[in-house]
Design brief:
Layout lengths: L2 H18 L3 H14 L4 H13 L3 H14 L4 H13 L3 H14 L4 H67 L12 E7 L5 E6 L5 E5 L5 H18 L9 E3 L16 H11 L12 E5 L14 E5 H11 L1
Antiparallel strand pairs: 1-2, 1-4, 2-3, 5-6
Helix pairs in contact: 1-2, 2-3, 3-4, 3-5, 4-5, 5-6, 5-7, 6-7, 7-8
């Protein structure tokens, strides 16, 4: 044994004394001094690793055990010590590999055998727990999807009820209201702004000129009309495409009125709107000569003087059209 080896041995023995008295920091310092003299001493690396293990510095300990095993790959104690540190880090797969390597060198090593069995059991537990968590996650996902589907179905049901109630409301109004075109422009489409408390009248707004006026009603079931209108007000912010400011639209369809026998002049506002819409030309031949305002559905057949029912025709086309209709 040369002088370097003797000094290294003396340092190791001194460090061992500190280790036995649990003065691990001092032991590490002296093991490090000895390793400077003998860096390929597997025993010194293992003992230094044990000090780190006892200080719960398992990452540093594993580094020392790896140095020892790089010097002596069949160092059973180092394999077992590394496996023990890996267990404390909950790295059971890596620890299992360490104890398996130890048993290859020493098949009867009970420490390695017992720890290997322990690691195998822990791995099984972890796998079962992961499987359980996966199944629970899938169950939660399925439940959440089912809940979302039920919520969507409920929304669709409520939306369908909203549309059905709106259709019923317009139907009741058509049956009970006095069909009255806009007194300003004679249009038939109105927005229903409100229903009186006794459902005896409607407050409406003309869709063309925005003129507000009232229409009388004589409903057989006023309570139902009020319920349907309130239902619309409650649901329109959610289910109406136009949001909370929307209102039910009533398109009047006056087939025949007493006034049909008395032809009234077409309102000037209607003429202006039709002229602008048709460009002041005959909608059939495009002529700009001898222009006339024509009722698409004749007054005698229940037509009205509304923008939708008025068109521009030249005199010639108007006579042909009248002859074919009459």
């Amino acid at each position: 044994m040369n002088i370097v080896q003797k000094i290294a041995l003396w340092l190791e023995q001194r460090a061992n004394k500190f280790y036995k008295t649990e003065r691990y920091d001092e032991a590490i310092r002296i093991y490090s001094q000895a390793l400077k003299l003998e860096p390929r001493n597997a025993r010194l690396w293992n003992n230094k690793g044990l000090c780190f293990t006892n200080l719960y510095l398992h990452t540093e300990a594993i580094s020392c055990y790896d140095k020892a095993l790089s010097v002596d790959p069949k160092y059973t104690i180092a394999w077992c010590n590394k496996g023990s540190s890996l267990i404390r880090l909950l790295k059971y797969d890596d620890a299992l590999s360490c104890f398996s390597n130890a048993l290859e060198t020493d098949p009867k090593n009970t420490i390695a055998l017992n720890n290997k069995i322990f690691c195998e059991n822990e791995i099984i537990k972890i796998d079962n727990e992961k499987k359980k968590q996966t199944e629970e996650a899938m169950t939660r996902e399925i439940d959440e999807k089912r809940k979302q589907d039920e919520e969507l179905k409920e929304i669709e049901r409520k939306k369908s009820d909203f549309c059905s109630n709106l259709t019923q409301l317009i139907h009741y109004i058509e049956l009970s209201a006095d069909e009255r075109p806009c007194p300003k422009c004679n249009e038939l489409s109105v927005l229903i702004l409100s229903v009186s408390p006794n459902a005896r009248s409607l407050s409406v707004s003309c869709q063309h000129c925005l003129h507000n006026y009232r229409i009388k009603m004589e409903p057989d079931d006023p309570k139902r009309i009020i319920e349907l209108f309130n239902s619309f007000l409650e649901g329109r912010s959610i289910y109406s495409p136009h949001g909370e400011n929307s209102a039910p639209v009533w398109h009047m369809e006056i087939i025949k009125r007493q006034s049909v026998l008395q032809r009234k002049p077409i309102p000037s506002s209607v003429k202006k709107a039709v002229w602008k819409r048709d460009g002041g030309k005959c909608v059939i031949c495009g002529s700009e000569v001898e222009i006339e305002y024509d009722h698409i559905i004749p007054i005698a057949k229940g037509g009205s003087s509304t923008i939708q029912n008025i068109q521009i025709l030249c005199k010639k086309c108007n006579r042909k059209k009248s002859a074919s209709i009459e």
